[in-house]
Amino acid sequence: MEEIYLAGGCLWGVQEFLKHLPGVISTEAGRANGSTNTTEGSYDGYAECVRTQFDPEQVSVEQLTDYLFEIIDPYSLNQQGHDVGKKYRTGIYTVNPEHLERVKQHILAREDAAKIVVEVLPLSNYVQSDQEHQNRLSLHPEDHSFCHLPLDLLYKYKNKS
């Protein structure tokens, strides 16, 4: 099992989408690369993210990158849908240097690489989100109205994993 941290705007929809992907073992809503180890207090520079544990024999970091790109606008800086602000920036974070290099090369190989503003950085800090944010759309499907992802995209892989 390996893990990577994926940021794609509001974490509710990102987690709901990722947890249904083939090869994804578990997900957890959290905050990447902030400067504190708490969810309390003022904004500390974090990006909303989903800690994604996966089986590399079933899904690669390149494939996970492609899946993320299905649900984000990779050209939008600090905004996804109606969520605006630095905490909604897109990013791929990991403590595994090989993952970083593979993701960077994968993005550079795209024809639109020059326009992509997705961060690809080492994970320097991770804080688990409060319990109320974990699996939010599974537990409270009525909250989908706050999510920028259409239902058909959100559940595209639900019964295929």
Automatic annotation (TrEMBL):
It catalyses: L-methionyl-[protein] + [thioredoxin]-disulfide + H2O = L-methionyl-(S)-S-oxide-[protein] + [thioredoxin]-dithiol; [thioredoxin]-disulfide + L-methionine + H2O = L-methionine (S)-S-oxide + [thioredoxin]-dithiol. Residues 3-143 form the Peptide methionine sulphoxide reductase MsrA domain. Its EC number is 1.8.4.11. The keyword Oxidoreductase applies. Keywords: Oxidoreductase. The keyword Flavoprotein does not apply. The active site is at 10. It comes from the Bacteria. InterPro entries: Met_Sox_Rdtase_MsrA_dom (IPR002569), Met_Sox_Rdtase_MsrA_sf (IPR036509), MsrA_MetSO_reductase (IPR050162). Has an important function as a repair enzyme for proteins that have been inactivated by oxidation. Catalyzes the reversible oxidation-reduction of methionine sulfoxide in proteins to methionine. Belongs to the MsrA Met sulfoxide reductase family. This is Peptide methionine sulfoxide reductase MsrA. The gene is msrA.
